């Protein structure tokens, strides 16, 4: 058996190594929102279903993110699964300094006052139950309290550093 050249010369752990490896990992695209003095939100590819009973989800958020100060205090958050026709919305919520809740964004206040985005594949409103320190991020764990899976459509996916759609 011949060893793979990649296994013969492993790279030392670094932020760039982690980013390079995770560019190979396709992930669904979500937008996380919270209500503050002004609503906040960001694009996340770290959304995970944690448990069914009670229904829990988790996601990571950088403590240097402009959304973090509101998320650090929020009792409830919104989780929005984006559709393949929404790469612009994902880009808006991923871009630093963007007017995320401006006139071009379809949104309303939902249960618990959480900003809800229109036209998404599905959404949840969740009660934050924990914020776990993890390096320069926090892992937020939240319990689902409301939601709607009926938006339909195919999911938006993040792979190789870009938003894309699934292929048949």
The count of strands amounts to 12
Radius of gyration: 17 Å
What value does the average pLDDT take?
94
Number of helices: 4
CATH domain class: Mainly Beta
Residue fraction in strands? 35-45%
Q: Please give the order of strands in the largest beta sheet.
A: 3-2-6-9-10-5-4
Low-confidence stretches: none
Instruction: Categorize the overall geometry.
Output: globular
- CATH level-3 fold name: Pnp Oxidase, Chain A
What is the string of SSEs from the N terminus onward?
A: HHEEEEEHEHEEEEEE
The CATH homology group name: Electron Transport, Fmn-binding Protein, Chain A
Number of domains: 1
Task: Summarize this structure briefly.
It contains four helices and twelve strands; from the N terminus they run H-H-E-E-E-E-E-H-E-H-E-E-E-E-E-E. With 168 residues, the chain is mainly β. It has one domain: Roll (Pnp Oxidase, Chain A).
List keywords for this structure.
168 residues; single chain; Pnp Oxidase, Chain A; seven-stranded antiparallel β-sheet; 4 helices; globular; mainly beta; three-stranded antiparallel β-sheet
What features would you describe in this structure?
This protein is mainly beta and 168 residues long. The protein has one domain: Electron Transport, Fmn-binding Protein, Chain A (Pnp Oxidase, Chain A, Roll), CATH 2.30.110. Helix content is 14%, strand content 42%. The longest helix is centred in the first third of the chain and has 8 residues, at 15-22. The chain is globular, with a radius of gyration of 17 Å. The N and C termini lie far apart (35 Å).
